[in-house]
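User: Predict the complex with phosphoric acid mono(formamide)ester.
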Amino acid sequence: MLSFQGENILSVNQLDREAIELIFDVAKRMEPYAKKHKRTQVLEGAVLANLFFEPSTRTRVSFGTAFNLLGGLVRETTGMQSSALAKGESLYDTARVISAYADAVAMRHPDAGSVAEFATGSDVPVLNGGDGPNEHPTQALLDLLTIDRELNRFDRSVDGMHIALVGDLKYGRTVHSLSKLLCHYKNIKFSMVAPDGLQMPDYVLDAVSNAGHQIELVSQMEGNLAADIVYQTRIQEERFPSQEEANKYRGGFRISQAIYDAHCKPESVLMHPLPRDSRSDANELDNDLNSNDNLAIFRQVQNGVLIRMALFALTLGVENKVQQYETNVPWFSRKRQS
Ligand code: CP
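Assistant: Here is the predicted structure with phosphoric acid mono(formamide)ester placed in the model:
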């Protein structure tokens, strides 16, 4: 019987199709609590250390929200300068200290491999919230859950789909993790749509190719967006050697309603891990798409809470006890209407 109790979630390489399906099954069972139909106190008394050493809105807040929705408490630190890492403390020592206080850790850090290094010193499960340009496993899971749900609306499935990954595929860790997860599915066509210099790293292309999927590497959006899923990424300016280098790419890959009408299919689903760069000279996904029913970006955000709740329930061994600690919600919530 597959179990995640006590495990770290550091990379999608840990996950096979059975593991993905278990996580999705538990995530779906979290819906009544995320929608505030019911509340649960299954993690009452448990403490999450939410350590974000790089900017974040969604991942940080949704990890905290997910833990709170299961009845647990959250302690948070943000930014390198407000932690003892700025005084030269090692990740190992920080982990020994933090895991003396907490029952689980969610962490983001700018360096590839840093979260795994931290986990070597932790006595409690560590969940990777993004380690530099390397991986973002919980984002990949929420993206995959979203793809599955969106395609189901059109009687399609992940197996056999066509996905266009668009933008900064070199530094965009979400597309690295998502591509590797999709290796557990069958017969997918990948259009890797990136400017020269920002194509998908070879190790990801090799994994996708070895899984038997079809890959097209292209450098322009025109003619390459007629996919079931169009997954746009932000130019990861913070990972470029210089701002000058990053500026060369800003605004190169924009999708507006006019571009959608001209180049996508009527049922193409638009996704983005967010944040979308909405500055006027970047404008990655134009605001005029906000009323497009196939813009799934805010449904991705909702699915992120479900996935992170599921991972906490699984790693803390309470996935089958959530209902037992359930109570009614007496207060009004707009979420219940949806
Ligand atoms: N998608 C994502 O990782 O967003 P944040 O940087 O806001 O956490």
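The pocket of phosphoric acid mono(formamide)ester is lined by residues 56-60, 130, 139, 273-275 (CB under 6 Å).
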